[in-house]
């Protein structure tokens, strides 16, 4: 995938989620929303997996441009919108929402907005963006729609499942994988050990894919078309 400077590089978490949606055929014939698309890797994967339509959203202008370029490069028709999570697609309906949110625990709850760290910083518990997605995803899901989200167990898989279940979803972990620490985790390892989030000597983290199917969604959501904007 083409990647402009400053755009998040697709890594093991992206591959795990892409493999999950392909293996489960969960996007075939579906309207798909890719949150925090970065390079557009998941959006392209959804097109290749047979999605009916794919919309991608990212807060970063560079990511928006990169996703557009990769869509064209790979002949994958992807609508790309710039903005914060669900704001650019308010009032739209999707059958599947894909999310690879920032989930790495940080030393502060203040999330970076104009630095590369916004691609991975999830606040002190790693849940700042995860919780927002859990709380707001129903507003854009069609009846019976689903969320497929990848995260680290360091950000609390049980908390994610419980939060989604309490909001009318039937959720479960459908895929797991261990990944060696990358540069960000290596740089934060001592801090995370001091906070009891890592075992002594631990140099790998477990990633999980959460599949949450909506049993009820707001009835006020309506469908519609919109055009790409930078």
Key features of this structure:
about 25% helix; 7 strands; disordered C terminus; single chain; about 230 residues; seven-stranded mixed beta sheet; 6 helices; Rossmann fold; alpha/beta; about 25% strand
Describe this structure in words.
- 27% of the residues lie in helices and 25% in strands.
- It has 230 residues and is an alpha/beta fold.
- The protein has a single domain (12-214), classed as Vaccinia Virus protein VP39 (Rossmann fold, 3-Layer(aba) Sandwich), CATH 3.40.50.150.
- Helix 1 (12-23) packs parallel to helix 2 (41-48).
- The longest helix has 13 residues, at 61-73.
- Mean pLDDT is 86; it is low at 217-230.
Given helix and strand content, the structural type is alpha/beta
Q: How many separate helices?
A: 6
Radius of gyration: 17 Å
CATH class: Alpha Beta
Largest sheet: 7 strands, mixed
Shape: globular
% residues in beta strands: 15-25%
pLDDT < 50 runs, ≥5 residues: 217-230
Q: Terminal Cα separation, in Å?
A: 20 Å
SS elements, strand count: 7
Provide the domain count.
1
Give the name of the CATH superfamily: Vaccinia Virus protein VP39
Helix and strand element order: HEHEHEEHEHEHE
Range of helix content = 25-40%
In the CATH hierarchy, what is the architecture at level 2? 3-Layer(aba) Sandwich
Mean pLDDT: 86
Write the layout of secondary structure elements.
Blueprint: H1 12-23, E1 31-35, H2 41-48, E2 53-58, H3 61-73, E3 78-82, E4 94-99, H4 128-136, E5 141-152, H5 157-165, E6 169-180, H6 183-194, E7 204-214
Parallel strand pairs: 1-2, 1-4, 2-3, 4-5
Antiparallel strand pairs: 5-7, 6-7
Helix pairs in contact: 1-2
């Amino acid at each position: 995938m083409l990647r402009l400077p400053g755009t998040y590089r697709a890594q093991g978490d992206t591959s795990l989620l892409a493999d999950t949606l392909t293996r489960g055929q969960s996007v075939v014939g579906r309207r798909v929303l890719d949150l925090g698309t970065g390079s557009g890797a998941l959006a392209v994967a959804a097109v290749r997996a047979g999605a009916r339509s794919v919309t991608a959203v990212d807060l970063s202008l560079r990511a928006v441009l990169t996703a557009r370029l990769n869509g064209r490069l790979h002949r994958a028709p992807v609508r790309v919108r710039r903005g914060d999570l669900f704001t650019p697609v308010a009032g739209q309906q999707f059958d599947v929402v894909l999310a690879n949110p920032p989930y790495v625990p940080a030393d502060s709850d203040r999330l970076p907005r104009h630095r590369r760290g916004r691609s991975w910083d999830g606040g002190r518990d790693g849940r700042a963006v995860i919780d927002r997605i859990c709380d707001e995803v129903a507003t854009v899901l069609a009846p019976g729609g689903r969320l497929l989200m990848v995260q680290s167990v360091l950000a609390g898989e049980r908390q994610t499942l419980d939060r989604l279940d309490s909001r009318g979803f039937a959720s479960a972990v459908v895929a797991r994988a261990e990944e060696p620490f990358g540069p960000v985790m290596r740089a934060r390892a001592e801090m995370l050990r001091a906070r009891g989030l890592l075992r002594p000597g631990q140099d790998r983290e477990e990633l999980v894919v959460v599949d949450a199917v909506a049993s009820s969604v707001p009835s006020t959501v309506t469908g519609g078309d919109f055009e790409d904007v930078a």
